[in-house]
Protein 1
Amino acid sequence: MDKTFFMEQKKIEIEYTEIDSIDELSTTDAYLVAKAREVANNAWAPYSNFFVGAAVELNNGKIVTGNNQENAAYPSGLCAERVALFAANANYPNSAVKTMAVTAFNKNGLSETPVKPCGACRQAILESELRFETPIRLILDGKSKIHIIDGIKNLLPFSFGKDDL
Ligand code: THU
């Protein structure tokens, strides 16, 4: 008797919104991006010269910022997104993170394309979403376009979280 196998091709779709400039954002979102741009100036990035800023808005109305902190022992550094997120969660452990704006400056100034959080930051953002049961809106800043992403599932589909343990 031949065994019949079942095989199905599946697909996951991701969604994002693209806009041309900060002027198309609401006042609150534009302010958050402005904060991320401002704090990028304080990044410690002497090795990459890639200056990243992140600003998170909490559901208690607070804004917490962070930037990348590099180290001569390269892996000891941390990305802007996690610096901001961990500072927010450390200081306001009962407030969900609602929105995160991220921006980056390279040697030519504000990055032309929207900055993309690395895999480890995506995982940390997922943890915060699951912890507070609140999706995090991401505003990824760039000179010629800005991407707005409703929740980490659009950046980290097929993720590993607490329910997989
Ligand atoms: N970096 C961030 O801070 N966030 C990102 O989304 C991408 C990369 C930092 C890490 C390192 O300090 C530098 O940018 C170059 O990778």
Protein 2
Amino acid sequence: MERILTGIQSTGVPHLGNLLGAILPAIKKSHENTNAFLFIADLHSITQIKNPEILKKNSLSTASAWLAFGLNPNNVCFYRQSDVPQVTELAWYLSCFFPFSRLSLAHSFKDKSSRFIDVNAGLFSYPMLMAADILLYDADVIPVGKDQLQHIEIARDVASRVHTKYGEVFKLPRASLNSQTNYILGTDGTKMSKSNNNTIDIFCDESDLYKQIMSISTSSTSLNDPKNPEDCTVFHLYSLISDKKEINDLKNQYLSGGYGYGDAKKLLFNKILKKFENERRKYNEFNQNPDKVESILLKGAKKASQVGDEVLNRFRKKLGFN
Ligand code: ADP
Ligand code: TRP
């Protein structure tokens, strides 16, 4: 069975956009492939996050969210990147095979270095660590968003450069583009993103969730007038988590008039609470029980480490270390 592998950056508590765009589709896939590796990319996060408490908290909340939504750690090798230090050793070797000039052309570095204040060397060599994440585990398929395609190309490229010198060492991975048909809108009607400050945080407490939902921007159509469901963010979000009949009922309410956005927002709020009731409870249980999450991640790291050692030794021998 092909090995699927992907990393998730732990930049905070996952929101509704992360859930519908990334977490749920990946969990669905993991039910079909029991040879999947999924890890929390905390070594990548330190390119940006320099606060140990926040770094730890983010890993815990990211892991708790995935577990709450049904990731089964018996099926998936679920681990934290920093628990398998072999990856940093491999990243170093790989960076000695990849031209500086190519790395300086990476779009993601160009983009981040134009926006961030802390433009460190880790940010620059980010694609080498990502190549190591993939090559260390003999991964075949890497599901990623479009923005990460160049990183997978770099992983293939650096592996091929090693092969030209030493013969075959690594499996050449291929990207599988997440069919991100889902482009979830945030409270201001633009793409939901932590950096846009427009998220719906499905795991936060009820009163904060209520405030976020009430703050969704809507048109100024008056209560009595019919409303267009197609250009309404409240309707958009409701339809992503509801069944056909519920969607149709809300559509009819919009079209017939006499139904306010406030009513639709309350409906959305109650829908989120009801739909994610179990997951919200489980998330809190995991989040308040860091030892349990820790033991799941360490068990995953043990397995990942075994695979990693094997591949790393294969390469060390070729390099002349050992
Ligand atoms: P953010 O933009 O909030 O920082 P990330 O970049 O950490 O989110 O995204 C993590 C994952 O969630 C990625 O796979 C990304 O494609 C997905 N994702 C994030 N926001 C959305 C959205 N609004 N709609 C669909 N998917 C999203
Ligand atoms: N860079 C990826 C992102 O920002 C996260 C990541 C790190 C990753 N290592 C990886 C994804 C290896 C796939 C494979 O989303």
